[in-house]
Amino acid sequence: MDEAEVATNYWPLLGIVLVVIGFALRFNPLMVVVGAALATGLLAGFDLGAVVEALGKAFNDNRYISVTWIILPVIGLLERYGLQQRARGMIVAMRGATMGRLLTAYLLFRQITAAIGMKDIGGHPQTVRPIVAPMAEAAAEKSHGALGEDEREKVLAMSAATDNVGLFFGEDIFFAIASILLIQGVLESAGYPLTPFQLAVWAIPTAIFAFIIHGWRINALDRRLSKVREAPKAEGSV
Amino acid sequence: MITLDWLYWLAGPFFAVWAILSLRDQRYGNAAFWGLLAGSFFFGSDLSDFANGVLVLALVAIAGFGGLKRSEPETTSLEQRDDLAREFGNYLFLPALIVPITAVAGTLLYNYTPLFPVDLFEERRETLILYGVGVVIALVAAVVWLRPPALAPAEEGRRLIDSIGWAAILPQMLASLGAVFALAGVGEIIGGAAQSVIPDGSVFLTVLVFALGMALFTMIMGNAFAAFPVMAAAIGIPLLIEAYDGDPAVIGAVGMLAGFCGTLLTPMAANFNIVPAVLLELKDKNAVIRQQVGTAIPLWICNVAIIYVGAFLLWN
Question: Best interface-test mutation with B: which of A51, A59, A128 has the largest number of B CBs within 10 A?
Fold first, then answer.
């Protein structure tokens, strides 16, 4: 009898498994999350009504996470008057640099704009495909001559990678971003109230490391492209 | 005192207007979804927990059965935008800058100068409330400066919110999942089990397992947001914060960033890793991921070090 009381009920963990499987199988994420929440609550021994109540209370307590969307009319209005076209103009002005300098500058541009809340100013359809990737390719050809197929793929892929790294490791410095408020919500539910600021400042060290590491890798690719060519050139000059 | 409820009363009309415009556009699923969200902002504090729960289930049902669609409200053409961008130049960035400046400067002034009365804002909510103030100032400034058609701000906002769709409430829903995990005692269960597996008192090893779990779960699910409540409930909160007394701010913030390193490594994060390979017509669909490996792994190691140093060595 005592044993049964002491034994831990591991069934609520099934909720975690459901989240992982549901996301991996590409079900609608909202359904996965709510399904997992209901399953976790039921398996922990609450009845359905109590679980729905818990979910409703938690959703209501966390409304501040979705409040941030009220920025959209401002952003949409600025887009209507050419915000994205202007951002492109700024990137195009980086022309004339080497591929290494160009992508490093874009990395910094993306990190800084994301850090002040303008994360949709860049992106693969908006800036990488039409501007950054072609400019990086042109800059690489200007310094190194015609690129082989593999080299060209590397330069284009590095352009896309630079957009991702810049966005991921810039956006969390902005306090009113979903990921920061999600962290705040989860910690608050567990009894650790924090401000968005306290969380966002801790995104800064990683942002700096991301700039150093990825910036170094961009320039390493540029150097590698020139090294590949130096060898045959040296032969020719003998 | 200005509380979060004021901010919700500000947000309610935004979503209500999007619901009405969706209705006019005969997008009934969108109208119902944004309308329910408007209801949550207006009345959520007065509704019973059960009613709020039913509202959540309704939102999920609409999204789950494909009720939300993109919209194409009338806007300017690309050619017009090129001309407008030349006309307005870099000033176009200014209204967008008003928001973070208002929030950051306001928070600093509120906390460190006697300029504002004490207790003007609800505790810990001043930044978000000032964010709302910033949005209002920016919106008014943009409208006065650009003189758009009357409905343009609302319609441009609807264009963007509809392009985000149900994903707009995913973070809120994931935070709610975290709360249900907390209620069901998921943290205690795993914490108890993990403590018996991880050599007792090894803070560094626990940090390593936490950061590795964030990255791996993110790679499997393609989403660091979804991995966060799971790993926070499993290791972050019961072990790192409670058992080992670490700084919750570092563990939360940098833990999420360790997850972002996982995002760089997985084809499951298709929007970031596969879509660009297709857009750029690359032969190797994993070419973008290949370029990211060399950044993601050293950066993940940096994150482990930042958590260990920031949350434990500097904190205690």
Answer: A59
